[in-house]
Design goal:
Blueprint (H helix, E strand, L loop, with lengths): L2 E10 L3 H11 L4 E7 L4 E8 L2 E8 L5 H8 L5 E9 L3 H10 L10 E2 L5 E5 L9 E5 L4
Parallel strand pairs: 1-4, 5-8
Antiparallel strand pairs: 1-5, 2-3, 3-4, 6-7, 7-8
Bound molecules: zinc ion.
The site of zinc ion has 6 residues, from strand 1 and strand 5.
Length: 139
């Protein structure tokens, strides 16, 4: 597959409202978008660092994978996933990854925040790093 850049870093937080003062007041970053992704039961907040984004993920339900991640992490948030932008489409990248024996979480691309097509590779196959592939279909 062809990766053009790191699209974003996903960070789990208990509360976006509690996390933003650190990112905005201490690090001096600016949140430019807050969006709920019903499908994933998360609220997301985006900040930009150069061309790379930071995606804060707050669970909207105890069923959310982010809620489970925080629970496993003793109630704390933390680094959750690494997202790469692929140039040849997420579906192609998934097929290619699967062809090399990588375990997929998503067999097909789905809609993520900011209108991106996204899919996750299983951390058991990616040396422990939950990996997201994305593409902007409007580009
Ligand atoms: Zn993400």
């Amino acid at each position: 597959m062809k990766i053009s850049h790191i699209e974003h870093l996903g960070i789990a937080v208990n509360s976006i409202e509690e996390a933003l003062p650190y990112y905005e007041n201490v690090l001096g970053l600016k949140c430019y978008n807050i969006e709920t992704v019903e499908d994933q039961k998360v609220r997301t907040a985006f900040l930009k660092v150069g061309d790379v984004k930071i995606e804060l993920l707050e669970p909207t339900s105890p069923e959310s994978t982010i809620a489970k991640f925080i629970e496993k992490n003793n109630g704390n948030g933390g680094m959750h996933h690494l997202a790469f932008a692929v140039e040849d489409g997420v579906a192609n990248a998934l097929a290619e990854a699967e062809g090399t024996g990588i375990r997929l979480i998503d067999k097909a691309p789905r809609k993520g925040a900011e209108g991106l097509n996204i899919a996750f590779l299983h951390p058991k196959s990616t040396l422990g790093v939950l990996t997201e592939l994305c593409e902007n279909p409007n580009k």
